[in-house]
Design goal:
single chain, alpha/beta, Rossmann fold, 6-stranded parallel β-sheet, 14% strand, binds uridine-5'-diphosphate
Length: 415
């Protein structure tokens, strides 16, 4: 059996206060004909990164809506995760070596997982490239999956994907009954499958996003050496070159020439499926150069959801300076807390930040610094942008909207 991820309980009705009773009633109506449907979500990691974050809410909400939903993760050797990290980089437009040996290592590992897949399901949702070939192995193996609808959920920006790597994956993706993407721009022209678009969302009732009394948040920040009497900016991200943590440090150094008491918090988790994380951490540590006002933090120092909540909430400005991005949940997380966000003009960040309204979209270190300085100089304007961002998130990027999208998709696939 694949490893099942233990889940919290979520009550759909609890979201009425935030999104309105009519939204919850609509979801219940959509879910009624799907009552009891067996849904399995499969991905590569139970924590760290956006997909794990999404599933931790989405699967319990499917249950609360009456479906029999489960989340399982595939296993992988170090070699497998090295290969799939290269795949991730190649699909985001990076230059990587792609060999037959890598293909074989990938397929062997997925086959091993396919043999462990147990149970019967009405819908199997396969996230990202790591488990993408599961369907091809399961198809030939057993009749128990006859009638199962398979959906591939691609979270990656494929606009500049390396053709060799994408062509390797494409036939596996095309074995699915549907493919879901974050933005229409991410759908490759070569894909012979009708795509659907459903951007990810955040959970306003998760520990990461729940309201937090200010004194409690301040205490948490202080425990990590952050002086809460001085302004700080923060970026929350895996230690990944595409998130450009070094660019954030460069921008911060420019900011500090003008706002001399500013501090920077960089918080990033190490995910089990991301072997590059430790190396990038080292590089960022070097770039920090023992600067006491740059706080470099990770889950290894017990930075968990509640600390992330405090950093995002108390930051004067939140930065997400990605060069490539699937969606960038951290942007909606910050906007929901009423903070303006300076974000790289990449992927799903452009859906979340309306430039000049909820924050700013930037294309360079210098621009990132200039916009951050503007916001630090005008706290009232910054709060107003944050408040606009919160409403934008309420309308578009809360988990009830995503739940509705998926229930509609399941309904369509059953018809
Ligand atoms: N995150 C976290 N702790 C960290 C760094 C990141 O909990 O130290 C969370 C972050 O709050 C967000 C998710 O991991 O919920 C990252 O999702 P995003 O879509 O921003 O990026 P991804 O990692 O999927 O590329």
């Amino acid at each position: 059996m694949l490893e099942r991820v233990p889940l919290l309980e979520k009550d759909l009705d609890a979201y009425s206060e935030i999104v309105g009773t009519e939204v919850v009633a609509r979801i219940r109506e959509l879910a009624e004909p799907l009552r009891g449907a067996r849904v399995l979500h499969v991905n590569a990691t139970a924590y760290g990164g956006g997909v794990a974050e999404l599933l931790a809410t989405h699967v319990p909400l499917l249950r609360s809506a009456g479906l029999a939903a489960d989340w399982q993760v595939i296993r992988g050797s170090d070699e497998f995760f090295k290969v799939t990290k290269s795949v991730h980089n190649a699909l985001q437009g990076g230059d990587v070596e792609w060999t037959r040996t890598m293909e074989a290592a990938y397929l062997e590992n997925v086959l091993d997982n396919a043999l462990r897949l147990e149970g019967a399901f009405d819908f199997v949702v396969v996230h990202d490239p790591q488990p993408a070939a599961l369907r091809s192995f399961v198809r030939d193996r057993t009749l128990r999956h006859e009638g199962t609808k398979w959906i591939w959920r691609g979270h990656i920006d494929l606009t500049d994907a390396d053709p060799k790597v994408w062509e390797f994956y494409r036939p596996f993706v095309e074995l699915h009954d549907a493919a879901v993407f974050t933005m229409p721009e991410f759908v490759p022209d070569t894909l012979e499958l009708e795509p659907l678009v459903a951007p990810p969302c955040i959970d306003p009732l998760s520990v990461k996003n729940l309201d937090l009394p200010r004194p409690f948040g301040e205490e948490l920040c202080k425990q990590y050496g952050v002086d809460v009497r001085r302004p700080f900016v923060c970026q929350v991200s895996r230690y990944d070159p595409w998130k450009d943590p070094i660019g954030v440090i460069d921008a911060f150094r420019i900011v500090r020439e003008k706002v001399t008491d500013a501090q920077l918090v960089l918080a990033g988790s190490m995910a089990t499926d991301d072997p590059e994380g430790f190396q990038v951490w080292e590089e960022v540590q070097q770039a920090r150069a023992d600067d006491p006002d740059i706080h470099l933090l990770s889950n290894i120092q017990q930075v968990g959801n509640v600390q992330i909540n405090a950093f995002q909430r108390l930051a004067a400005v939140v930065i997400q300076k990605s060069i490539r991005e699937g969606f960038g949940l951290t942007v909606s997380e910050a906007l929901w807390k009423g903070r303006p966000v300076v974000g790289g003009r990449a992927g799903g960040i452009v859906l979340q930040i309306r430039d000049g309204y909820d924050g700013y979209l930037v294309d360079s270190v210098e621009e990132c610094a200039a916009r951050t300085i503007d916001l630090l100089a005008d706290p009232v304007g910054a709060d107003a942008m944050g408040a606009q961002g919160r409403e934008h998130v309420r309308q578009n990027f809360l988990c009830t909207r995503e739940l509705e999208d998926w229930l509609r998709l399941f309904t369509q696939l059953r018809a």
